[in-house]
Structure formats: C-alpha cells, structure tokens
Amino acid sequence: MSVPQRVLDIAEGIRSMRIRGAGKIARAAAEALKIAAQEYRGGGGEEDFRKYMEHVAQILLSTRPTAVSLPNAVYYVMHRLEKASGSIGDLVDAVVAAADEFIRESLEAVQRIAMYGAKLIPSGAVVLTHCHSTAAVSVIAAAYKMGRVRKVYSTETRPFYQGRITMRHLLSAGVPATQIPDSAVRYIMREVDVVVVGADTITSNGALINKVGTSQVALAAHEARVRFYTAAETYKFSPATVIGEPVPIEFRDPSEIVPRGWIEAHRGIEVLNPAFDITPPNYIDAIITEMGVIPPQAAILVLMERYGWAIEKMRHREPPRLRFEETVDQR
Ligand code: RUB
Fold first, then answer.
1. Whether the Cβ atoms of residue 306 and residue 237 lie closer than 8 Å to each other
2. Is 178 within 8 Å of 167 (Cβ atoms)?
3. Ligand 1 within 6 A of 23 CB?
4. 277 annotated active-site
5. How many other C-beta atoms lie within 10 A of the C-beta of residue 184?
6. What is the C-alpha to C-alpha distance for residues 57 and 67, in angstroms, rounded to an integer?
7. Which helix (H) or strand (E) holds 97?
8. What is the pLDDT of residues 236-246, one digit of tens each?
9. Is pLDDT above 70 for 325?
10. I need a surface site. Which of 72, 78, 219, 325 has the fewest CB within 10 A?
C-alpha cells in the first residue's frame, strides 16, 4: 500500500520530535490524514480506500505513545470516515472536512484557554513553567498583556531543552523571562506565585501526564503552597483511561542524555530516558480547558461529554466482567 511521501515525512517528524508538543502533534496527524485522503491513488473502490486510510492511521498512531492528543485527533477523523458513505470522492471530502474542523477547533481551543487562564494569574505575578507548551505560553502571554505578569521562570527541560523554545516564544511576546536549570525549581519556588504547564494527557481521575519533571515541579509548588495549573485542550483527555487503560510512558533513546560513545565506554551501565511523568490530581489546583476552568476531579465529566461515544465503543470491546469471586481469586 503506497503512502504519500509527505505523510511519511509528517510521521517521521513526529517520531523524531521535529514536530513536538501535544497540540502540534495532533494537528499534524489530522493534516497527514487529510493529505493521505487527497493523494489516494489506489483504484480498488471504497473498501480499498478505507483499508488504506486505516493503514495511514496506524502509521501515525505508532509514532509516539504518550500524548493522547494524537489518537484523539486520528479517531476524530477516522470516526467521521466510518460514518460516511458514497463515492470515493465523498469519503475524501468527509476526511478533509473532519481534519480541517479538528485543526480549526484545536486552535480556537488554545485561544479560549489563554483567555480563561489569564484571569487566574494574580496581578504582578511571578510565573514558572516547564518544557514548552503552546497552551501554557498562550495563558502566560495573555496574562502579560493584561498587565498581570511580572516575570517568568522557564526550566531548561533536559535532555531536549524545550525550555529554549519557551524562552524564544516568551521573549517574542515581550514577556520578561529567565531560564533556570531543572534542578533549580525548588530553590526558585519561594519567588513564584503560580505555575502553569501544558498537558500531554489528562486521565479520568484528573491526573496529568506531561514532560518528565512536571511532577517534581508540582511537588515543589505543593510544598511552597504555590498554585499549580495545567492548560489542557479537551482533546488531551484520555477516554481509554475510563476503562482502566494505563497511559504508556515513552522512553526515548539514551543518546539524548549521554553521548553514544560514553555508554559503550562504560559497559554494563544503564541510562534511562523517560520522556513524561505523572502528576496526581491532588497536586493540581485546576485544569484550564476551552470548556472552562475545572477541578481535576471533573475530568470524568469532560470525558463523558466529549468522548462518550468512544468510551461506549471501547466498553463493547471489553471482555465480559469477571464475577466478584473470580476477581478475588485473581489477587
Ligand atoms: C511536550 C510537552 C508539553 C505538552 C503540551 O513534550 O510535554 O508540555 O505536549 O504542549 P514533547 P502543547 O516536547 O516531548 O512533545 O500545549 O503545545 O500541546
């Protein structure tokens, strides 16, 4: 099955992190499905087109495992294809319309989040952020425009240094910003009034999966009684967690941490490079979504409203529940 080079380039861009950040990954995946549909050249009829699109969807889904925005974007478009009927032209139109809609709505979501989140920042605030999140930076930039932000601390975010991207964006928005090493978070926290970070995935119990180190930031904020907010579009909420699926944490190549030769020179040494971690809901003051500012405990309500259909589908795929005695026996 021949897949257009532009689609493979997008998939590779996501895998290699040339395209990164949960929102951008999701929009790129929607765009890739759109390109795939428009450039379909097979002559096998409707069934062939559906199989081809499913194949493209699988390629995109296999690029990075943690940010649920990726499967949510893919399923958004593929669900519309599933419901569509008619000629190949009609099916292509359905994919294009769904992809365009997803991209437009996801960009509008960031604007809304900026608007709602900015109001949570107290006047004259010192803000800390971790990694690079478009949603979090949008909140901070909007709050700065309202005259509320005095200064921002941005962590380097090793090993990939996404903090440098954050610095560039903050500086171009005119926001005074200072880069700090990740290890300085607890030291600097005494100056900070509020933490704002992005999200890769929000689980049904309101936990946040975001760039590794986020949970340490949250812990330091909690200890210092500093408010901790995550800016998360609702397509970053994971329907699969409602049926108990764990969120896979991506482990990247150790060469992002130490040079390849170093590992070889120290035989037997292990280097681990987890890309994300989990912040429990009790460390999160609020999740800023485009639907409004919610406590983490309300994550399930967002999931039911936004992904009720997907959760129903997943439930039907689940094997029948074990009887109570059987579950006890399993322990
Ligand atoms: C990026 C990261 C970001 C979220 C949210 O990780 O953890 O905080 O993806 O970003 P990586 P956004 O660099 O490994 O993709 O708000 O832009 O969606």
1. yes
2. no
3. yes
4. no
5. 13
6. 15
7. helix 88-118
8. 999 999 999 99
9. no
10. 325
Q: How confident is the model at residue 50 (pLDDT cuts 50, 70, 90)?
A: very high
100 is catalytic: no
Total residue count of the chain as it appears in this document: 331
Check pLDDT > 90 for residue 79. yes
Q: Which ligand 1 atom is the nearest neighbour of the CA of 231? A: 16
Taking the model in full, what pTM does it have?
Answer: 0.94
Instruction: Work out the pLDDT band at 324, boundaries 50, 70, 90.
Output: very low
Provide CATH 1.20.120.420 ranges for the chain: 5-111+310-329
Residues 113 and 244: their CA atoms lie apart, in Å, by 28
* CB atoms inside a 10 Å sphere around CB 123: 11
CATH 3.40.50.10470 residue window(s) in the chain:
112-308
Eight-state DSSP code of residue 37:
H
Annotation: CATH topology of 112-308: Rossmann fold (3.40.50)
Whole-number pLDDT of residue 329: 41
Ligand 1 pocket test, candidate residues 69, 105, 113, 132, most atoms within 8 A of CB: 132
Q: Is the CB of 27 under 6 A from ligand 1?
A: no
Q: Does domain 5-111+310-329 have CATH number 1.20.120.420?
A: yes
Least confident of 120-124, 155-159, 318-322: 318-322
Q: Is the CB of 22 under 6 A from ligand 1?
A: yes
| Residue 323 in this model has a pLDDT that exceeds 70 | no
- CA nearest neighbour of 119 among 94, 93, 145: 145
* Residue 326, pLDDT score: 42
Residue 121 C-alpha from the chain's centroid? 22
